[in-house]
Design goal:
322 residues; alpha+beta; two-stranded antiparallel sheet; two-stranded antiparallel ribbon; 42% helix; globular
Length: 322
């Protein structure tokens, strides 16, 4: 019954003043959420990487996580900016970890994430972000003020490792189940709307190269740097989102052409959602597929999971060889 209700809801819904959770609050806020000093069952993908984020060892499977602290984005942002004072935050550390160790780890992750992000955009990724408003409410729940929500480097840190986890898990399940994997694709933008956007940009004196996601990103970056009119710049950025199509979940067996699996904005051939099973039902399915893939590997009596994790995805519906 619980699984059927979660499937029917599909996702948690975030409103201004509350969340309508996909799962009961006892699960999503306590039992299934990481809490410092409290061991939690998890499904993990673990890497050993170099300073540039290149993976040279990888493991995926069921795990137990006993975290040492619960940090917030502003805390990590202060660490990055070099102005973090633990005395201003009421956060308790566990397992004998010190703030010096915590800051060191966060900064190491930040360095790797920065290089991963640069490499991702260097490979042609596109990011279109509209202004998100954050509302302050009075005691009656009425909005009294609004301000833009600004994503900082701490947000990018988490985002890069979530994208990396999603991408790596995609390869595992797509290779193990080339006709049954649940992936997420993003079709190219509407050609008609893209032409309308380019024409509108030209009316504002801006030339846009839309030959690829990376070219479009480079054009938008140039506009941000060169356009002195804030209002015109924001209008252009808003117009750039209009040609974009919605990303879609799909089963690989229903799309036999591997070329149609591509995610346009991320510039990735394969992608899925793995990191948020508490609030997205597709992630629950992907967790089950990953577990089945690892069990299949054991049944095939492979000595370890290195081949399954690192081999390229098959371009046909042939199951992996033992």
């Amino acid at each position: 019954a619980l699984d059927e209700e979660a499937q029917a809801r599909g996702t948690s819904v975030y409103l201004v003043q509350r969340v309508l959770p996909m799962l009961p609050c006892l699960l999503c806020e306590q039992l299934c959420s990481l809490q410092p000093g409290d061991p939690k069952c998890a499904f993990s993908i673990v890497w050993e990487v170099d300073a540039d984020g290149r993976i040279y060892k990888e493991w995926a499977g069921r795990s137990i996580i006993n975290s040492c602290a619960k940090l917030a984005y502003p805390m990590v942002q202060q660490m990055i900016e070099g102005c973090f004072d633990p005395g201003t935050w009421q956060v308790k550390l566990f397992h004998g970890v010190t703030w010096e160790q915590d800051i060191f780890d966060c900064m190491a992750l930040h360095g790797i994430a920065t290089r991963l992000r640069a490499a991702r955009f260097g490979s042609g990724a596109l990011r279109l972000t509209n202004i998100r408003l954050s509302f302050a409410l009075d005691t009656g729940g009425n909005p009294v003020s609004a301000s833009p929500y600004v994503q900082a480097e701490a947000n990018h840190l988490v985002e890069e490792f979530m994208l990396l986890a999603n991408m790596r898990v995609t390869g595992i399940i797509a290779r193990a189940f080339p006709a049954q994997a649940l992936l997420r694709r993003h079709p190219p933008p509407s050609e008609r709307k893209l032409a309308e956007f380019k024409a509108a940009a030209e009316m504002l004196g801006v030339t846009v190269d839309s030959s690829s996601a990376g070219a479009l990103q480079a054009s938008l970056n140039a506009i941000r740097a060169a356009c002195q009119d804030d209002a015109a710049r924001e209008v252009i950025m808003l117009l750039a989102t209009k040609p974009m199509q919605l990303a879609q979940y799909f089963c690989t067996g229903e799309a036999p052409e591997v070329s149609s699996w591509r995610h346009y904005a991320l510039a990735m051939d394969l992608y899925t959602h793995f990191t948020s099973p508490i609030r997205r039902y597709p992630d629950v399915i992907v967790h089950r597929l990953l577990q089945a893939a690892l069990e299949l590997q054991q049944q095939l009596q492979q000595p370890d999971n290195a081949e399954l994790l690192t081999a390229p995805v098959a371009d046909s519906a042939t199951p992996p060889e033992p």
